[in-house]
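If your schedule permits, I should be very grateful for your opinion on a structural question. The matter concerns a single protein, recorded as an amino acid sequence and a row of backbone structure tokens. Could you please explain, in whatever detail you think fit, how the structure tokens follow from the sequence? I set the record out below, with my sincere thanks for your time.

——
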Amino acid sequence: MLEIIWNFFDKLEDNVRRWFSHHPLLYAFVGGAGLIIFWRGIWHSMDYVMEYFTTAAKSGDIGTLIWWDGPLSILIGLIILTVTGIFTSSFIGNEIIISGIKGEKKLVEKTEAEVESETEAIIGIEKQIKTISKRLGKIEKVVASKNK
């Protein structure tokens, strides 16, 4: 049963993200609104907690406080962010997710030698790509001259 629910919401997220990918301004607006609503919920929940422990708890009157305002905003923001696929990417980031899948260290955990080694490897790859690009350009010229 849980797998059916998981698959439903996974497909829903994929469809929503696919639709929003064709409407980037609307995607940014909805994603931004979801983030603001989520953080508003966190903010209001903490305001309620602080109000409860400072003034309301002393007077015994917490009836005027709307306790569900913060949690409701958190829930609405969470739904928007999860359905649009923004929740994990905005709070964790794609690079951290990918490095976790690959089993790599975080940048702050790497030694200077490891960072330099990776930088040198990237520079080497860039040089190889430039060489391949030049060779491909020459091949294209030869093929184009033979086709004339």
Remarks:
- The CA atoms of residues 29 and 35 lie 10 Å apart.
- Residues 2-104 form one domain.
- The chain has two domains: 2-104, 112-148.
